[in-house]
Amino acid sequence: MLNKGGRNMPAVIGLDVGTSGVKGVLLDSKGRVASQASASYETDFPRRGWAEQDPDDWWSATCTVLRTLMGSAQGSQIDGLAISSQAPALVPLGENGRWIRPALIWMDRRATEESKTIVRSGEFGHCDPYFLAPKVLWMKFHEPELFSRVRSVVQVNGYIVFRLTGAQTMDVTHGGLTLLWDPEREDWDAIKIAQLGLPPDIWPRVVEAVEVAEGVSPEASRQTGIPSGVPVFGGAIDAVTAALATGAGMGLEAVEMTGTSSVLAMRDHLASSPPEWIRVRYFEKGVHLLLAPMVAGGGGLKWAARVFVGERTANQTDAVYAALEECARKSRPGACGVLFHPYLLGERSPIWNPFVRGSFSGLSFQSTRDDLIRSIYEGIAFALRHNLERIDPGGVLVRELWVTGGSATSRFWNQLKADITGRRVRCLPAAPGSAYGAAVLAGIGAGYWKDAQTYWQHAGEVPGEVFNPSEISGFYDEAFARYKAFCEKLIRE
Amino acid sequence: MMREDLILTIDVGTSVVKALIVNGNGHTIARAAESMNVEYCGLQAELDMETVWKTVARVMRSCLNRAPKEQVAAVGLTAQGDGCWLIDAEGRPTGPAILWNDGRANQLVQQWESDGTAARFFTLNHSMLFPGSQGTILKWLDLHDPDRLHRSRWALYCKDWVFYRLTGMVQTDFTDASHPFLNIRTGQYSTDILDLLGISSHSRLLPPIATVEEGRLRSDLAGFLGLRPSLPVIAGPFDVVAALIGIGANRPGVGGTVLGTTVVNALFLDSLPENPVPGGMTLYVAPNRWLKVMAVMLGTPNLDWALQNLAGKREMDSTSLSHYLDSIGETTRPGAGGIIYHPYLSPSGERAPFVKPTARAQFYGLSVSHRTEDLIRAVLEGVAYSIRDAYEGIAQDYSAIHLTGGGAQSSLWCQIIADVTGREVVTFASEEAGALGAAINAAVKLNMYRDVRAAAAAMIHEKVRYSPTPAHHTLYSERFKIYREIYRRMWNIWDLDATEFRV
Asked: What is the ipTM of this complex?
């Protein structure tokens, strides 16, 4: 695709190295998307609970995407490149930067014992196999020989920055996901690292999201088509760029990024943030995001499709989801007493228990299939409310919930979320996603826009349909009290 | 012993009357059945007593028309227990029968539970009071319809009513009278209990007690039915106890389970426990013979509900159901992949081995890898856990479970029950255990056999024995601990009100 801005139009590139593939966006200096490209790869599940990816797959997908973007950007002047990614991951590099073993990605659950060890040490608050520290400990204990050869531990976007430039870095937004972080100094925490018995010298240089890590190397230039010397910025975790891409994150709104699982993000306005939420640096200095990564999300409906509709039809997803929604509509608010706890794969925030599982409760023989299906939608919305309540019990800080991603297309579900959370829901089903956010980041880094606000003033008003809580909203308080009581009584170590 | 003798045996259930003609080997020669419509109105559950009698007479006659009736040597009888069947001095009903599942006295029972009456009652009778027990109904009538009690002469049970119409004699037996009227130690009517329930002024309503009710067929009926005049009529124990006799579970150490709409779990005892844990029911059966019964609220409806609402299968005939359950057995593993189901689907909660009206069913431990089949298997396992829970509530050892009722048709379910309880599960050829038990009782009275044991040996036919698989039993025992822990933790959550949404 030839860009309409003509030749020599300045442009930046944003990449998102996600769980299923790489997406890239070429954004011109006027803030218009000039072209997009993507390439996918697989996740390997060698054992139950393990999830690994080959860093070379990220790199070759990145090369494909960049060559495609450069092909469509004939003559454009590339002013910079920023990369966001799935996070956190353990990518252990040895001598000369070769990876030592496939990466343990965010979804990998193997470090459960190490996670418990960290919790028991009492110094780290809650922990989960999701974070970086237990993953590193796992490798130390289970693969000591390989671990002794580790010279550096990078993140997914850090690996791509390294392949592009030769510099080993970690962007500042990843810090909060490592559990080895000093939020005051915004750098690795040498004391915590020592407490866990980890080597002091394998932690890469910390860079700001919009700081230049290094320029593209001649070798990488040959492989990607990006001119040598183009600045590569520090980048960010995908939650930061996805929030940036919606235009939110600055005021009194929370953003729910839905998919198989959901992540809730909002700007930290609090004097002290609740321990269940993860505090990460936003790309702007002095601004922090609070993140509630949940396992609960669209995955619950995918499961429902299989259980209630059947294996064979589950592939015709749109029709199946429409049928499920129709069933849910036929039931009544409160699903006639049926409650669903959507922890089908364990839960992160606010439960932080990888062993907890889902449940239907409150069943009687008057409960119907429609009630069961409705309870799944309600249960996922209760999980959302559970997180919001920890951060904003009075309902004053989070006035609006911005919903992006797959679930945002369902008007039924958006209204249900408004009723259950008691908050206005704005849906952005077409929000362009993390790669676009990464491109905005690169544009800020390249000096096109001073900050995100300037960019959004430039880009115009945020669209999106709004759903207000209806008159039945208060009815859900009692069901939510039961939802919480169940969590407190039935979920323990 | 006269092998050509046949027995006409009758089982008057709540919704259906059955009659069988069986021979001395327990084989069915003829059968007939007719359904009845219980009048449900609000919490009330009633049957018109004359209609019941006429239905019994019709079913007897149509059964006799299909067999050599001249060979019939006796009539055996069993029927639903509990409830209140009142007649006047002329033998006319003074109103419809109030049934065992009638709920008009719910509040009375709640009051007795809160004011300590129920606890004192338990020390005398070793049973839990419930709304459909005759003592509760008499007290309710005393408060709300005293005139009916004044017009009445006898307070009977269902089988006593039918026995009266067959023979003209007014009697009841230990098994029906035991709950709530008998001193559980002596087997005598207890004035303490009548005082406690506030019905001692109505003690004249209680009929004499026999170990087994024996009478002679009235001559006008003999003519109508084409039977010999003065044919012996033997009314056995009420249906639950008769069913236990019909599956050979009437001896200590052998558990008897009827896996039907409700799940009756019972063990005969030689001695009475000193300090029984509250829960379930103890019946005085005969001198030095008691029966401990744990009746779990719902059994097979759990499976029906799950098949309909999870698997989208309604009204399956028995062949396709059996094929479907076989496929569940082949595609799932013991433990259902970690799902634990609690089978408390009744809107009135659970009553054994614990009493909890707010209890509700649940699936716990759901994971993204589970399929419909795993959930269905979890339901079968959950009912088996509730059976084990019931037997552990009886707190007497037992070596085997003799199983009957609709659930016994599924070999997968039988094997799961064996694996969960760690006991051998035995099923039987006859699906009419209650009627067969009444026939066994009659055969002994006719001197066809020396005693019940000998009659049972000849008349009861085993179908399959399911032995527990040790590895599966170990796994299920671990899961069972979690099953119990979960309902313990649910205790107060169940009490949180689930208000219904109304527009």
From this structure: 0.86
